[in-house]
TrEMBL record:
Family under the similarity heading: Belongs to the MqnA/MqnD family. MqnA subfamily.
SUPFAM superfamilies in alphabetical order: Periplasmic binding protein-like II
The UniProt record lists the keyword Phosphoprotein: no
Catalytic reaction annotation: chorismate = 3-[(1-carboxyvinyl)-oxy]benzoate + H2O
Domain of life: Bacteria
Organism: Caldalkalibacillus horti
PANTHER family: CHORISMATE DEHYDRATASE (PTHR37690)
Protein name stated in the entry: Chorismate dehydratase
Role: Catalyzes the dehydration of chorismate into 3-[(1-carboxyvinyl)oxy]benzoate, a step in the biosynthesis of menaquinone (MK, vitamin K2).
One Pfam family in the UniProt entry: VitK2_biosynth
Gene name as annotated: mqnA
E.C. numbers: 4.2.1.151
C-alpha cells in the first residue's frame, strides 16, 4: 500500500473531493491529519506522498520531489490564516505571541512579516490552537485552517490580520502554504503508482474547481457557515503550482533564509513522470 497524506482542513478539500476513492483504495491508504503531523510523518517516512507545509518541504527539500500542478496557495487574502491581536500590529514590538502547534509555513511567514516588513521584535510560544487560552497570557495568537475560520466567525473583539493579504501587500506575490511531495526513494521505486496518484489529484482538483457547488454544499454540511462564505473561500484559494507560485514561494524561502529560519534559500525540485519513448 502507498501511504498518502491528507490535510484534515477544509482548505485542501478540492484536491480530494472528486478522487475515485474506490479505484485507488486497494493500492493507497489515506492518512488525514493537521499539517504539522503530516510534516512529521513525511519526514520519518511513515508517509510516501501527499501534502506538507511548504516550509517543511524547504527544511528537507533534498529528501522530496514536489508533485506538479498542486498546492494550497493564495494571491492576497487566504481567509483561514489569521493573527488575532489585542493591539494593532505595528504596536506589537516586545510582545509575546502564541503560535498554533498545527502549522509550519504560517509560523515562518508570521516571523518573516513581523521582522522584515513590520520591523518589530517579539517572542513566541507554541500552543495547542485555542484562541481563548492563547490570549490569556499572550498579546496575539496565530491560528490556521478550520481553527482560524471558526475563531473568525465568532467576530472576536480583536485586530485580525490575514497573513496571505499581508504577504501580498508587502511583496505583490502569491503565497503557497502547502505543496504535494513524494519521497525521492518512492518516486523511483514506485513511479507508476505515483504517476497514477498525481494524475488522480490533478483530475480531482480540475473537476471540483470547474463546478464548485457540490464542494461548497459539502463544506456547509461538514463545518456549518453560509454557502456564500465557502463559495468565496474556495474561489480565493488556488490549487495550481505555476511559475508564478514558485516565484512567490522561493521569495518566501529567500526571506526565511535571511531571517535565519532556513539554513539555505531552498529551491523547488519538481517530480517528472517517466517518459516512455515509443518507437
Ligand atoms: C490555507 C491554509 O494553509 C495551510 C497552512 C499550513 C501551514 O501553515 O503550515 C499547511 C498547510 C496548508 O493547507 C490554512 O491553514 O488555512
Amino acid at each position: 500500500m502507498l501511504k498518502v497524506g491528507k490535510i484534515n482542513y477544509a482548505n485542501a478539500l478540492p484536491v480530494y473531493f472528486s478522487l475515485p476513492i474506490d479505484q485507488l483504495k486497494e493500492r493507497m491508504a489515506f492518512v488525514s491529519e493537521v499539517p504539522a503531523s503530516l510534516n512529521k510523518k513525511m519526514l520519518t517516512g511513515e508517509l510516501d506522498a501527499g501534502p506538507i507545509s511548504s516550509f517543511a518541504y524547504a527544511l528537507n527539500s533534498k529528501q522530496y520531489l514536489v508533485l506538479p500542478d498542486l498546492s494550497v496557495s493564495s494571491k492576497g487574502k487566504v481567509r483561514s490564516i489569521f493573527l488575532f491581536s489585542k493591539k494593532p500590529i505595528h504596536e506589537l514590538n516586545g510582545a509575546s505571541i502564541a503560535l498554533t502547534s498545527s502549522s509550519a509555513t504560517s509560523i515562518a511567514l508570521l516571523k518573516v512579516i513581523l521582522k522584515s516588513f513590520i520591523q518589530i521584535d517579539v517572542t513566541y510560544q507554541t500552543m495547542t490552537p485555542s484562541l481563548t487560552e492563547m490570549l490569556q497570557e499572550h498579546e496575539a495568537a496565530l491560528l490556521i485552517g478550520d481553527d482560524a475560520i471558526r475563531a473568525n466567525w465568532q467576530e472576536p473583539d480583536l485586530y485580525t490580520y490575514d497573513l496571505g493579504e499581508l504577504w501580498h501587500k508587502y511583496t505583490g506575490k502569491r503565497m503557497t502554504f502547502a505543496v504535494w511531495v513524494v519521497q525521492k526513494t518512492v518516486a523511483s521505486s514506485r513511479s507508476v503508482l505515483i504517476e497514477e496518484l498525481s494524475q488522480a489529484f490533478i483530475e480531482s482538483k480540475r473537476i471540483t474547481v470547474q463546478n464548485r457547488q457540490p464542494l461548497v454544499e459539502e463544506a456547509c454540511r461538514m463545518y456549518g457557515g453560509s454557502f456564500a462564505f465557502w463559495d468565496q473561500y474556495f474561489a480565493g484559494l488556488s490549487y495550481d503550482f505555476t511559475k508564478d507560485h514558485i516565484d512567490g514561494l522561493e521569495t518566501f524561502y529567500e526571506l526565511s533564509y535571511q531571517n535565519g529560519l532556513l539554513p539555505e534559500p531552498s529551491k523547488v525540485e519538481l517530480w517528472q513522470p517517466n517518459k516512455v519513448i515509443c518507437k
